[in-house]
Amino acid sequence: MDFLRPRTWAEALDLKAARPEATPIQGGTDVMVEINLDKGRPAALLDLTPIPELREWSREGDVIRLGAGVTYSRLIGELEARLPGLAQASRTVGSPQIRNRGTVAGNLGAASPAGDSHPPLLACDAVVEAESVRGARLIPIGEFYTGVKRNALAPDELIRAVRVPVARGPQYFSKIGTRNAMVIAVCSFSIALHAAERRVGTGVGSAAPTPRRAVAAEEFAAARLDWRGRSPLDPDVAGRFGELVAGAAAPIDDVRGRAAYRTHALAVLARRALGWAWADFRAGTGADSSAGSGGGDDRGSQ
Amino acid sequence: MRVNLTVNGRATAADDVWEGESLLYVLRERLGLPGAKNACEQGECGSCTVYLDGTPVCACLVAAGQAEGREVVTVEGLSRGDAPLPGAGPAHGDVSGEGLHEVQRAFLDAGAVQCGFCTPGLVVQAHALLAEADGVPSDADIREALAGNLCRCTGYEKILDAVRLAATRLGPPP
Asked: What are the 2Fe-2S ferredoxin-type domain coordinates in residue numbering (chain B) (predicted)?
């Protein structure tokens, strides 16, 4: 095995082009588990932790550009107001020690259907910024997941950043597990109300070969919610929304749960999440308070 | 490969390191620091918790090469007399007479050490919690901070007692 240590992003891209079989490593919370437990032995490790710009995030217009090396801990501490759904999901990742190392980009690279970042990224219309020596390209999140632990990256590409729109309405993430910590999701769900566009975003995790949207549920809710009058949520609408989310899933029986349980639980999670989000919308809370005023930091680095 | 790093304030190097090796293996098997424990090797149990550049992490999930040029503090480094704790957060943890850090002393006094295997990881993680805390943390905050440290003797109540005792003795940060 080789250990490749680029000093700059350009050098990292050169190395990945020359050694496309190299496995990128950032926090190591997936890659090192594979090696430690002898589940796989990469030909080479490409260590991205020395590259300073990967640890930076910045606000570019209405989008947060989250560098591939920004840890969950920093995301929670620095971006909770602007990316509430993703921050909530980040809080449920592993333990403090894991959140101090793990990254959203690492979650994307691993592309496990159970990864906690995926549902909010789907609900928020995130875009993955991939780059190689051939150039950079933007991959809409809905096109990023291609199979179980497979993604749309070419062999010579690395994830440079993830672009996540600043919240313009309430967002929630909800997850089923056996404990309140250190849990790989049995199933998970995220919702984002895009209030200005009267649109609902969803993301379903750990209930299909890839994380996915529940498109029929999104369209149903967008059409049936009383955006103008902000009247209370009709329980029938909430219930139907839950059913449609469950219907979008294609779960399997595995060690963490049965397919039937996952389907049932998703309907409950989705119904509740819509209730929370709608209550916030009616109360006028849950949106990014600094979005219009330009308040809050516009960048962060470590 | 060779890995150069600072451990407990001392610059050191490990030779013949395998490229897929963890920082934990380097600390235990190459540098003779067995404090951090090797158990699950997948970040579940927290028994290998060390500071890496001031942040508590699972040493089993840090590739050895990723520690190149960086600063590591292990549980051994918390009990080094009155030396400052480089990279271990604000050094308001006064060290008691016998060379133990207040967090370590509190674990003994509270009866929070049973088989002892989880203790080093818990001590480092509790140290990190108290370095940030203003006074005695709430039970919810202690449980959240220690959520990634498993004690298979299930001595969690005494461990919570130890953290509260250490927090009381340390007082608020200066």
From this structure: 1-78
